[in-house]
Amino acid sequence: MNFQQLRSIREAAKRGYNLTEVANALFTSQPGVSRQIRELEEELEVDIFERNGKRLTGLTSPGKEILPIIERLLLEAENLKKAGQDYARETQGTLAVATTHTQARYALPRAVQAFRENFPDVRIALQQSSPEHIADWVISGKADIGIATEGLSEFDELVSFRSYEWTHVIVVPQGHPLLALDTVSLHDLAAYPIITYDKGFTGRSHIDEAFDKAQVAADIVLTAMDSDVIQQYVALGMGVGLIASMAIEHHNTHHLHPIQATHLFRPNIARIAVRRGAYLRSYMYDFIQQLAPQLSREDIRSALSDNNGKG
């Protein structure tokens, strides 16, 4: 039994049993992958995969039990390597952080700056995508830490922690009729075209939830992932914007006017996620604490060992 065999099994299950893709991912040949899989099956004296001729079609019943064990073995091998690095080069390494564009631009700079002051020899790789992709990257090990608002607490493979709270704000150009109102209602808002985030991004579910609950039809005419893009189109007079408050607090380059919306939409909680069972290097604890200073290292360790895993 060797790690290449274990990786071949894991990648075959992960990539829909397509051995060509597995071979590409492992930088080897398709016959080599087939041989690794067959050798491990022979050693274990059980078929891990169902087959149609030479083609893999799925996991057998024993295979479904064996795969999680293989994943744990590979994870522990990775943890062992990280533990060695932690003691040999305690303040050196790379921290891969997956997050959304809004968090990367507006929420993380101060934390990243403080972290770099503490760990100048640690390289930081910021990867930006949707919360779903962020979760996938952390689960697969492509990212060490994931930061997003929606969905990270819904994955059993992840342990997530509450970080900071933020709200949405309405933004309009100068002279807009909504500025004359003491309090804007959802009905008032729905009278205008709305420009906001794509579904799955930056608290969008709370916006949809509020309109649905009030049974008010919102005319969402344009969506984007980037707060600046939304503000650009609002400045052009194409509609009323709904964005994260931190976006306009940091950079109101479009000279828009914010209108409070805390009474309309539920607050959003940014969450920090790591892969369940992963070994956290010392500097990873520091980065998490930059974003969630209320957490101690013991709090983080306790959450990592908690079966629930949602701090």
Q: Describe it for me?
A:
The chain is an alpha/beta fold and about 300 residues long. It has three domains: about 5-85, Arc Repressor Mutant, subunit A, CATH 1.10.10.10; about 90-165 and about 270-305, Periplasmic binding protein-like II (D-Maltodextrin-Binding Protein, domain 2, 3-Layer(aba) Sandwich); about 170-265, Periplasmic binding protein-like II (D-Maltodextrin-Binding Protein, domain 2, 3-Layer(aba) Sandwich), CATH 3.40.190. Helices cover about 45% and strands about 20% of the residues. The protein is built from 13 helices and twelve strands. The strands form three sheets. The chain has a five-stranded mixed sheet, with helices on both faces. Helix 1 crosses helix 4 (about 60-90), helix 2 crosses helix 3 and helix 6 packs antiparallel against helix 12. About 35% of the residues are buried. The mean pLDDT is about 90.
Brief overview, please?
By secondary structure, the protein is an alpha/beta fold.
Beta strand count: 12
Strand order of the largest sheet: 4-3-5-12-6
Q: What is the number of domains?
A: 3
Distance between the termini: 38 Å
- Detail the poorly predicted runs: none
Percent helix range: 40-55%
Task: Classify the secondary structure makeup into a structural class.
Answer: alpha/beta
Mean pLDDT: 88
Give the name of the CATH superfamily of the largest domain.
Answer: Periplasmic binding protein-like II
Radius of gyration: 24 Å
Sheet with the most strands, sense and barrel status: 5 strands, mixed
Please name the CATH architecture of the largest domain.
3-Layer(aba) Sandwich
- What is the number of helices? 13
**Beta fraction:** 15-25%
Shape: elongated
Order of helices and strands: HHHEEHEHHEHEEEHEHEHEHEEHH
CATH class of the largest domain: Alpha Beta
CATH topology description of the largest domain? D-Maltodextrin-Binding Protein, domain 2
